[in-house]
């Protein structure tokens, strides 16, 4: 049963599916990076699954780099799955639920920019790890705590709540999986620049990634946040993105 929060998240992504690719620049960059990282990891052939595939940028990149290997696209949004550019198989599934039992266990579970939308990211990560075939891999990218420092600072200075989505802590994700399973990890910082803070938030609005558990701000509160943004002449917004490769 999809919870109220999941339903809101999935509706927002569904409503933006048609325009997702045009604004998901960082997501595409990270998906390609992760696919390249997978190519260097000697992942056994078998069932490969992209969890929260969206329009399929990670699954497409993996299939391009591994001719003959297909990737199952799993997402909770039907509209996202119908916007696939590739011809790969799809499965509509709420990732807050247990993964389906497949006839053979997956040799690759991968996921890019999805885990932070789920109810309990460390617990979900552990569940995914436990579903792998012995010797199978889990390849993950996820934005983590520390992201959007400028937005948090601006809200604090403006004296209004910060309505940014809370991101999982990297340390808690790592604590959820066996240390000896970690084959590779990296945290990267990406910053975008704009003429106005609103310009920095627009890609999130356009991709449907603007659902937040907090109550929304009114127009005058938003104006105060924008006026309080650090370095207002050259506003920036930073993401901290964690990449993790695990082998069972
Ligand atoms: C930011 S998009 C990332 C899509 C793709 N992985 C990419 O890198 O472009 C997040 C995706 O997670 C999916 N998603 C969010 N919550 C979900 C849930 N509870 N169950 C299944 N999919 C979910 C959304 O529908 C959306 O396609």
Descriptive account of the structure:
The model has no long low-confidence stretch (mean pLDDT 94). The protein has helices at residues 4-23, 25-39, 57-65, 78-82, 121-130, 149-158, 170-175, 197-207, 219-227, and strands at residues 48-51, 71-75, 90-92, 108-112, 137-143, 182-193, 236-247. The protein has one domain (4-147, 166-190, 239-247): Vaccinia Virus protein VP39 (Rossmann fold). It has 9 helices and 7 strands. The relative contact order is 0.18. It is 38% helix and 19% strand. Helix 1 (4-23) packs across helix 8 (197-207), helix 2 (25-39) packs parallel to helix 3 and helix 6 (149-158) crosses helix 9 (219-227). It is an alpha/beta fold and 248 residues long. The site of S-adenosylmethionine has 25 residues, from helix 1, helix 2 and helix 3.
Write the element-wise H/E pattern from the N-terminal end onward.
HHEHEHEEHEHHEHHE
User: What's the CATH H-level homologous superfamily?
Assistant: Vaccinia Virus protein VP39
**Distance between the ends:** 29 Å
Overall number of strands: 7
Ions, cofactors and other ligands present here are: S-adenosylmethionine
Q: Short summary of the structure?
A:
The chain has 248 residues and is an alpha/beta fold. The protein has helices at residues 4-23, 25-39, 57-65, 78-82, 121-130, 149-158, 170-175, 197-207, 219-227, and strands at 48-51, 71-75, 90-92, 108-112, 137-143, 182-193, 236-247. The chain has nine helices and seven strands, in the order ααβαβαββαβααβααβ.
């Amino acid at each position: 049963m999809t919870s109220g929060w999941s339903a809101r998240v999935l509706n927002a992504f569904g409503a933006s599916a048609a325009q997702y690719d045009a604004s998901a620049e960082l997501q595409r960059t990270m998906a390609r990076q992760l696919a390249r990282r997978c190519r260097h990891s000697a992942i056994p052939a078998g069932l490969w699954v992209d969890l929260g595939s969206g329009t399929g940028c990670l699954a497409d990149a993996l299939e391009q780099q591994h001719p003959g290997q297909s990737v199952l696209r799993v997402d909770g949004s039907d509209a996202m799955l119908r916007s696939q550019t590739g011809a790969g198989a799809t499965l509509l599934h709420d990732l807050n639920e247990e993964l389906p039992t497949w006839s053979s266990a997956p040799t690759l579970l991968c996921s890019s920019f999805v885990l932070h939308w789920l109810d309990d990211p460390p617990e979900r990560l552990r569940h995914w790890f436990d579903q792998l075939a012995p010797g199978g891999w889990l390849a993950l990218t996820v934005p983590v705590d520390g992201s959007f420092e400028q937005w948090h600072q601006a809200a604090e200075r403006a004296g209004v709540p910060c309505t940014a989505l809370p991101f999982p802590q990297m340390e808690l994700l790592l604590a959820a999986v066996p240390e000896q399973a970690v084959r590779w990890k990296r945290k990267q910082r990406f910053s975008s620049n704009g003429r106005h803070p609103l310009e920095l938030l627009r890609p999130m609005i356009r991709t449907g990634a603007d659902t937040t558990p907090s109550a929304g701000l009114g127009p005058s509160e938003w104006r105060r946040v924008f006026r309080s943004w650090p370095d207002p002449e050259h506003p920036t917004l930073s993401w901290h993105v964690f990449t993790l490769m695990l082998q069972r």
